[in-house]
Q: What sequence folds into this?
């Protein structure tokens, strides 16, 4: 199994080198595909120096499109048998990779979600932000007749064939509900595993906003009835 780690990036000059170091320390990634969504804080310049070194491939968007667009660019470019999405903000810990990959390695899952709500260690954080995630997940479960605990998780791992022919239209954070909706409708086997979670707040650069929750609701409703 060849693992491609996809890292969408926007203005993470203080974190980008550290997250790359953490991913490399797992010794599990056959390649690290980093998609910079036109960062303006120096991230882009760091990445240009790292491109081609230690299994790193850098793709530079020429205009800002959003996290979803960066993920899709990475998925299209990745060469691995299994793809793993890794945020650059240090909220998710690459030391969880073995647990995330185990269900796929054992042949019992096509897709694995790392759940922040299955009892893994986590930093105490903003109440209303963590309330929104279970509400969106509950809506997902009602609409798609499933039992997820964390639809919005940034840790999504899947075999390459799962996305063959899949058209993702999301450009921003609505990638998560659209991807989940299409995975559920295609009847792929999803496993969830507990992960650790160290969320940052807005003063530390958190980017997701309230309007993204409304976009997620619309995406869940829309893709329940259309492809």
A:
């Amino acid at each position: 199994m060849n693992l491609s780690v996809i890292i969408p990036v926007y203005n993470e000059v203080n974190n980008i080198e550290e997250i790359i170091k953490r991913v490399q320390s797992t010794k599990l990634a056959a390649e690290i595909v980093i998609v910079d969504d036109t960062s303006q804080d120096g991230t882009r310049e760091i990445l240009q120096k790292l491109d081609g070194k230690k299994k790193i491939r850098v793709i530079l968007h020429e205009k800002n499109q959003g996290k979803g667009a960066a993920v899709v660019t990475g998925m299209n470019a990745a060469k691995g048998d299994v793809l793993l999405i890794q945020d650059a903000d240090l909220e998710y810990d690459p030391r969880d990779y073995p647990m995330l990959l185990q269900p796929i390695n054992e042949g019992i899952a096509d897709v694995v979600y790392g759940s922040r709500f299955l009892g893994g260690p986590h930093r105490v954080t903003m109440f209303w932000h963590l309330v929104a995630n279970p509400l969106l997940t509950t809506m997902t479960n009602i609409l798609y007749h499933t039992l997820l605990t964390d639809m919005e998780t940034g840790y999504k791992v899947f075999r390459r064939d799962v996305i063959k022919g899949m058209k993702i239209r999301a450009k921003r954070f609505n990638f998560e509900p659209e991807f989940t909706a299409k995975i559920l409708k295609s009847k792929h086997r999803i496993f969830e595993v507990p992960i650790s979670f160290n969320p940052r707040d807005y003063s530390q650069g958190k980017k997701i906003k309230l309007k993204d929750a409304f976009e997620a609701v619309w995406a869940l409703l829309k893709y329940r009835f259309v492809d």
Helices lie at 16-25, 43-50, 67-77, 97-105, 127-144, 175-185, 210-225. The chain has a mean pLDDT of 92. The longest helix spans residues 127-144.
